[in-house]
Amino acid sequence: MKTRFAVAALAATFAVASVAGTAHADGDNTLGPFGYNDLKLGQSEQAAVETGLLVDGEGDQVCRRYYFAPSEGSSPRASGVWISGLRGVTLIGATSRMRTAEGITEGASLHSLRQHYPQLVQDPDSDWIHSTPAPGNPSAKYRFVVYGGVVDSFVLELNDRASC
Q1: Which residues form the signal peptide (predicted)?
Q2: Residue-level pLDDT at 27
Q3: pLDDT tens per residue, range 22-74
Q4: N or C: which end of the chain has fewer CB within 10 A?
């Protein structure tokens, strides 16, 4: 059962404001099943910060949120990278430059999303949220926000990501 905090945090993750930026220098903009470039799910806060991909950390020792450096693309202001003091990186919010390993980006159709992810399911409490296991990583899933049949944003997160 979802807690109010978890639902609020998920909703905040998909807020609308954004921060502008440019493409990643090496051109690999894949948010794959384990993470993005040197940033990985489960990674400690120190290791995540040392990747050089993150800026502007906020929060407490239990749960902190960082934003991607502007060079990684724009993203919803309430999105970012969530890091638990106990579990490390628990959620990586995609930027406008990122794609899944299967080629899904912001703007992809729901039809395409279903073709690439046959296990895609619609959230029973929030009809605009769809999730699917991250192919190749049984510990993670993708969550997609879909409005008007089009992917608006997406995240990679640990399956058992409680409140952070």
Answers
A1: 1-25
A2: 62
A3: 333 446 899 999 999 999 999 999 999 999 999 999 998 889 999 999 999 99
A4: N
Burial class (CB in 10 A: 0-12, 13-18, 19+), 28: exposed
Whether the CB-CB separation of 18 and 75 falls below 8 Å is answered with: yes
- Domains detected in the chain: 4-158 (2.60.460)
CA angle centred on 69, ends 96 and 163, rounded to 5°: 80
- Is 99 exposed, middle or buried (CB count within 10 Å of its CB: 0-12, 13-18, 19+)? middle
Tell me the C-alpha distance between 61 and 41, whole Å. 17
